[in-house]
Design goal:
Layout (H helix, E strand, L loop, with lengths): L9 E6 L4 H18 L5 E6 L16 H16 L4 E3 L9 H7 L4 E2 L1 H12 L5 E5 L2 H6 L1 H5 L6 E3 L9 H7 L12 H15 L4 E4 L2 H5 L14 H10 L11 E6 L3 H13 L11 E6 L6 H6 L6 H13 L4 E3 L9 H5 L6 E2 L1 H12 L5 E5 L2 H6 L1 H8 L3 E3 L3 H12 L12 H15 L4 E4 L4 H4 L4 E3 L5 E5 L1 H17 L1
Parallel strand pairs: 1-2, 1-3, 3-4, 5-6, 5-7, 8-9, 8-10, 10-11, 12-13, 12-14, 14-16
Antiparallel strand pairs: 15-16
Length: 487
């Protein structure tokens, strides 16, 4: 098993553009906090800002699709650049934080957790929390989720003659969003803050980064007005923001062959204990039928598939997969060549299959193998069997020709057939193994379970022969890994 490469240098990506002035304020205060802690030389900070083309109107400044996609694309760009964690200075974006975390690999430092931590540490007696925020954030219940009723009471400024003072201060024609950091916006915010003070709040939290930007200038006040931008920056600098656990993801090298990939996916689903859609495992399939034929390369002069297999595995690695499954027996002849250059493990289907056989049949001595001539010639199964004290039985040359016809023939399974001549051909190979004394047979080509979808088969003499499906064994092992990671 390989382990991910370690990188002790911290790096952060700041999502700018949703509130250009306010996000720049968080960047500045983060630099100040790091400098005060002497850690500024040990961290890389990327501030990325593009024109956000979502609505700037306060009345429709909700968590729109445009905002979600803007933030998501920014995070994906940070991933490609090797950033270690995301700083998201936007309260409205935190209303869909769970959606972002479920679909990205990078940890996002939770701004609301930073505020909750600050309140508990700096204002342990505070119970009534005043909030200066937008209608959209207020209606989302964001602050109530982090400051629940059991311990807190969240209050908002009351409207004055139908006017929302905070909205007007930030989004108005002469508001903070337009670069006006004094005058009327400060007067409106001070009036809203005084209303909260009249409601006997213990402290006031800006729920807009633009409000935090000018918090120091909103005076005089009878209760503390917290600079939430500074609180967030200090929280990031202290590295107190913990990432939510990333959902386990299985990466699948697909297309080798296509029908076998679909079969493997069905077995992943079937073997996963789930009561609802969300209980299933994340799977990233890189379907690449253009990977050169493995058997052609091993038994003849076909093109080497090593680079194509490696490139497909790297795409899965880059996509955040935790492990790689290759539902192709013959492709495992190349696994040792590429595993050392990957930072995530390939679950060896052959090894786990043979281990499973040894556990189920402790007294067994011989195991039959139905596989491509390439798999047989490579010796990959033979070595795996010998490591478990088992002997491989292979079909006779004539019977092996019929096995290859069942797989690659014009009426074979790779051509989409599961009935007719392909059934006769594969049964000929199976009968040959039975005559040699096989009681257990590995279906060592991932298309063969499509021809022999049974756990065992009754013979004419009344005996039964066990059929081992490596695809199902691989699926079960992947599900086990995912379950262990979840625990």
């Amino acid at each position: 098993m390989t382990t991910p490469r370690n990188n002790t240098r911290r790096s952060y990506g700041i999502v700018g553009g949703l509130g250009p002035l306010a996000s720049a304020d968080v960047f500045f205060k983060l630099m100040q906090a790091m400098a005060a802690r002497g850690s500024i030389a040990d961290a890389d900070v990327v501030f990325e800002q593009h024109p956000f083309r979502g609505s700037g109107s306060a009345s429709v400044a909700a968590a729109t699709t445009e905002r979600k996609l803007y933030v998501f694309d920014m995070i994906r760009d940070f991933e490609k650049r090797g950033v270690g964690a995301v700083v998201l200075p936007c309260f409205l974006s935190h209303t869909f934080l769970d959606e972002l975390r479920a679909n990205t690999a990078l940890p996002i430092v939770d701004m609301m957790e930073a505020l909750k931590h600050h309140v508990r540490q700096a204002h342990p007696r505070a119970r009534r929390i005043g909030v200066l925020t937008s209608d959209a954030t207020r209606s989302s219940g964001l602050f109530e989720r982090y400051f629940p009723e059991a311990s807190f009471e969240v209050r908002y400024p009351r409207a004055v003659q139908g006017r929302d003072l905070v909205t007007e201060a930030v989004y108005g024609e002469d508001g903070i969003k337009r670069g006006n950091l004094g005058g009327r916006p400060l007067q409106l915010l001070a009036e809203a803050a005084r209303d909260l003070a009249a409601q006997e709040v213990d402290l006031i939290l800006p729920g807009l980064t633009e409000v935090a930007l000018v918090a120091h200038a909103v005076t005089p006040l009878a209760v503390p007005l917290v600079d939430t931008n500074r609180v967030y920056a200090q929280y990031v600098a202290d590295s107190q923001g913990e990432a939510a656990a990333k959902p386990f993801k299985i990466g699948v090298v697909g297309g080798v062959g296509p029908a076998a990939t679909v079969d493997f996916m069905q077995k992943i689903v079937r073997n996963t204990p789930a009561a609802r859609d969300q209980d299933h495992i994340k799977v990233h399939v890189e379907q690449n039928p253009q990977i050169p034929d493995r058997t052609d390369n091993l038994v003849g002069h076909g093109q080497d598939p090593t680079i194509a297999l490696y490139a497909t595995c790297k795409k899965l690695e880059d996509g955040g997969a935790d492990l790689i499954a290759i539902p192709c027996n013959t492709a495992h002849a190349y696994v040792e060549r590429i595993q050392s250059s990957l930072s995530i493990p390939i679950v060896n289907m052959l090894t786990v299959t043979v281990q499973s056989i040894r556990e189920r049949y402790p007294e067994l001595k011989q195991v039959g193998l139905l596989a491509t001539s390439g798999t047989l010639g490579s010796g990959v199964y033979q070595r795996a069997l010998e490591e478990q004290g088992l002997q491989q039985l292979a079909p006779s040359p004539a019977a092996q020709e019929r096995v290859m016809e069942a797989i690659y023939g014009r009426e074979g399974v790779k051509a989409g057939h599961t009935q007719g001549r392909c059934q006769d051909d594969i049964r000929a190979g199976l009968d040959d193994l039975v005559r040699q004394g096989a009681e257990v047979v590995i279906l060592g080509c991932t298309e063969l379970p499509l021809l022999l979808p049974f756990a065992e088969l009754a013979l004419e003499d009344g005996k039964r022969i066990a059929l081992v499906d490596p695809t199902d064994t691989l699926a079960r092992r992947c599900v086990e890994f995912a379950g262990a990671a979840g625990q």
